Amino acid sequence: MEKSEGHYVKYNVRADHRQAMVSRMYDDEELSRDIQNLCFRCNRFLYLRLNNLRQRAGQEFLLKQCEILF
Asked: Has this prediction a pTM greater than 0.70?
């Protein structure tokens, strides 16, 4: 599990939950769409991508380990 300092937001990366989680977290539709369209194959990539979007969101993220089944 990755974490960074600041305001933490729990983010469940299960595919069946991500849209509901994102819509609750953000009013910014463009940012929500960016997060929904992320690659979920690698948790490290997901963290780096969200960390990059954090500047726009004004939020930091606490990510759960990816639970996607391949």
From this structure: no
